[in-house]
Amino acid sequence: MYLSDTIQVVDFLNKFAVNSLVSAISASRGGTLVRLYGNSEISGFFFHLKEKIIIPVRNLSAFPKEPLTRLEEGLRANFYGKIKSFSVMKEFGKVVKVETENIDLIIPLFAGKPVRISDKSGNSIWMERKDNKLNLLEKQMKDFPLTFENPLFWESWFIEKSDREGEEEKRKKLEEKRNKILSSINIVKEDIGKHEENLAKFSEFAELLRANLWKFDSSEHKNAVILTDYENNEKEITLDPAKTVLQNMERFFANIKKAKSGIENSGKRLESLNEELKKLNDVSVLTEEAKSVFKQKKKQTGHVPYHEFHAANGRVFLVGKEAADNDELTFKIALPHDLWFHAKDYHGSHVIMRMKKGEEPKHEDILTACRLAILYSRAKKGGCGEVWFTARKNVTKRKGMAAGLVNFKNAKVIYMKDVAMPEGLVKV
């Protein structure tokens, strides 16, 4: 996010978040989410110090709660009240100041400087960690063009980026765990091989000594003995001279028992590791299958049934493309509290204006939706016409009705003339 992007977002927050109350603060997606109460356009703002971004938030469900860090704990205890203004302290770089009635939240969007809260005199109330004051820039930051025309696009951009990086992190962790298990399996297999070698060796030594024990004095100590095995081959057996021949035989039998126990325990460990590897591979397969299914569904449903427009104030409008698309948009995508628009007495697109439950529509947004209804209908040629609009819950469809045809009630009518595409409306 460039300085120009930061300024754009701060201007947007100044327009739509001022006079909202700080209602909650939580950690999410590696950053900090500040929820706001009392505004119908946005639900809060989010900043991420490592990503060096601050963005407006509408979809709170896309920001799941994570364990609190010291930053969120400090903000919860010290940052409160009604938002009075947002500003960029350009003299220090990408530093955002969020002012309430009594305190200021300072957010440096670059590495090395902590978030802090100060009173109106500039005295520090709380700081994420010990640090010196912000330093003035020696030279002004470079001015780069805006990344997005609409600052609301930052939310979807960040969510997609975060999800993508999250999937990559999961993949790396799975791969690391798999390699660790495979390494452990190889070590256990080597251990089993050593135990099997010892079992074979000590079994032979113990049996030969037992069969020939009568040849030796029970208290006799030897460095080695040469015995004839069952195939009439001479076999030299190294002994511990500190022990008697009998004690050496007993030691060999103890080693046999130890080797058998080692094979049994290592076998159980190998079975456990293989089961763990199987489960991990199943997870990997499921993950890959899920990705494949998602991609396939995305490919199969690649046709989006609507055009999407965003107004300068963040309002979202969806315009059906074809008759069948109108049905899908109205009855599968639109929510009951959204507003529905259609050019009266003309074939044309259904237009949906996204609304929050209980929200009162603004007149300028209603006019924008009416213009879209005219422009995406046969009334476009004359540039004028009447537009019906009502809550989506008032629109129904009888079984057997042709695609795009509907019934509705409690509709209002607005006459539009000299219709042109509204300024500041961006097609996504």
Total count of domains? 3
CATH architectural group of the largest domain? Roll
- Strand neighbour order, sheet with most strands: 19-16-14-15-13-12-20
- The value of Rg in angstroms is 37 Å
Which fold does the CATH topology of the largest domain refer to? ibrinogen binding protein from staphylococcus aureus fold
H/E topology pattern: HEEEEHEEEEEHEEHEEHEEHEEEEE
Note the total helix count. 6
The class by helix and strand makeup works out as: alpha+beta
Task: Report helical residue fraction.
Answer: 25-40%
Highest-level CATH class of the largest domain: Mainly Beta
Beta content comes to 15-25%
Reconstruct the topology from this structure.
Elements: H1 3-16, E1 21-28, E2 31-37, E3 44-48, E4 53-57, H2 70-78, E5 83-88, E6 95-100, E7 103-108, E8 116-119, E9 124-127, H3 153-212, E10 224-228, E11 234-238, H4 245-300, E12 306-310, E13 316-320, H5 323-333, E14 339-343, E15 351-353, H6 363-375, E16 385-391, E17 395-396, E18 407-408, E19 412-416, E20 426-427
Antiparallel strand pairs: 1-2, 2-3, 3-4, 5-6, 6-7, 7-8, 8-9, 10-11, 12-13, 12-20, 13-15, 14-15, 14-16, 16-19, 17-18
Helix pairs in contact: 3-4
